[in-house]
Design goal:
- It contains nine helices and seven strands, in the order H-H-E-H-E-H-E-E-H-E-H-H-E-H-H-E.
- By secondary structure, it is α/β, with parallel strands linked by helices.
- It has one domain: Vaccinia Virus protein VP39 (Rossmann fold).
- The chain has a seven-stranded mixed sheet with strand order 3-2-1-4-5-7-6, sandwiched between helices.
- Helix 2 crosses helix 3 and helix 8 runs antiparallel to helix 9.
- The protein is globular and about 50 Å long.
- The structure holds S-adenosylmethionine (SAM).
- InterPro entries: Methyltransf_25, Pre_MeTrfase_YjhP, SAM-dependent_MTases_sf.
C-alpha cells in the first residue's frame, strides 16, 4: 500500500502538497486560534508540514496518517528537524480506516477528500475523531470561474463540471451538512504556482537524472503538456481553500 511513484517524483521537493505557501499555512494556524496542548489528527498528512510547524509555533500535539511511505519518512524527518518529534507522530496507513485512540480538538483532511468519497463522507470520517465542540479543517478545490466547456473541465483534472462546486456552492454544502463555516484561508495564483510550477522543475531534474527509468516516457510526455495546461485552465479556473467548521 503506497502512493504511486510518479506522485513522489513530481512533489519530491514539496513540504506542502497543496496550493498553500508557508505563509498561508501560518495564517491558517493563527486564524483558528490554536493553543498549547490542543490535540490534532491530520488524515492524509503528506510530509507533515502542518502538524510540525503548528507544533513548533503553537505547541499543539498530534498524529498524521498518510499512505505514502516517502511522505511519512519526510514528515518524521521534518519533526526531528524542527525539534517537535516528542509532540507529533506520523503513521503509515489508509486514513479512511484510521480511528484515533482518543477524540481530538482539531481533525483535518487537507486536500484528500477522496478518502471519504467526497466532502460529506470526509466530514463524517473526521467527526468520529472529534471532541464535541471541536474544529474540523477540510481543504478542497472549487471553481473560481464557471468552466465554459469540457476541455476546461478536463484541463483541471476532473471528468465532469459537477466534480467541483463553486465557492458559494461549497459554502452552502457545509451549511446543508449541519456545519458552521467559522474561518477560511484561500489559495491564490501565486500559491498555486508554488505547488504546480515547482513540480515541473522536480520532474525535469528527475528526467535528467533517470533517462532510462520505466516512468521516463510518461513523465516526459507530462512535462510537454503540463505548463500550458496549467496556464490555460487550472490557474484561471480552479480555486482551493481550507475551511474551518464547527458542528452547528
Ligand atoms: C494533495 S496531498 C495533501 C497532503 C497534505 N495534507 C498537505 O497538505 O501537504 C494528498 C495526500 O493524500 C495521501 N493519501 C492519498 N490517499 C490516501 C489514503 N487512502 N490514506 C492516507 N493518505 C492518503 C497522499 O499520499 C498525499 O500525501
Amino acid at each position: 500500500m503506497d502512493l504511486p511513484r510518479s506522485f513522489t517524483i513530481r512533489e519530491s521537493n514539496h513540504r506542502i502538497h497543496n496550493p498553500f505557501t508557508d505563509s498561508k499555512l501560518a495564517t491558517l494556524g493563527r486564524a483558528i486560534r490554536l493553543r498549547p496542548g490542543m490535540t490534532m489528527l491530520d488524515l492524509a498528512s503528506g510530509s507533515g508540514e502542518m502538524l510540525c510547524t503548528w507544533a513548533r509555533e503553537h505547541g499543539v500535539t498530534g498524529t498524521g496518517v498518510d499512505i505514502s511511505t516517502a511522505f511519512v519518512d519526510a514528515a518524521r524527518a521534518r519533526a526531528v528537524e524542527l525539534g517537535v518529534d516528542d509532540r507529533v507522530t506520523f503513521v503509515h496507513g489508509d486514513a479512511a480506516a484510521y480511528v484515533a485512540a482518543t477524540p481530538v480538538d482539531v481533525a483535518a483532511c487537507i486536500g484528500a477528500t477522496w478518502i471519504g468519497s467526497g466532502v460529506a463522507g470526509t466530514l463524517d470520517l473526521l467527526e468520529r475523531d472529534l471532541h464535541p465542540g471541536g474544529l474540523l479543517l477540510v481543504g478542497e478545490p472549487f471553481w473560481r470561474t464557471d468552466p465554459p466547456d469540457q476541455a476546461t473541465v478536463e484541463g483541471c483534472h476532473v471528468s465532469a463540471k459537477e466534480d467541483h462546486h463553486d465557492l458559494p456552492g461549497l459554502v452552502a454544502l457545509f451549511g446543508k451538512l449541519g456545519w458552521d463555516l467559522v474561518e477560511m484561508v484561500l489559495a491564490d495564483e501565486d500559491s498555486w504556482d508554488r505547488y504546480v510550477a515547482a513540480q515541473w522543475l522536480n520532474v525535469r531534474t528527475w528526467l535528467d537524472a533517470n533517462p532510462d527509468d520505466d516512468l521516463a516516457g510518461e513523465l516526459r510526455a507530462e512535462l510537454d503538456d503540463a505548463p500550458l495546461r496549467y496556464a490555460r485552465y487550472q490557474r484561471p479556473y480552479l480555486g482551493w481553500g481550507v475551511f474551518a467548521l464547527m458542528r452547528r
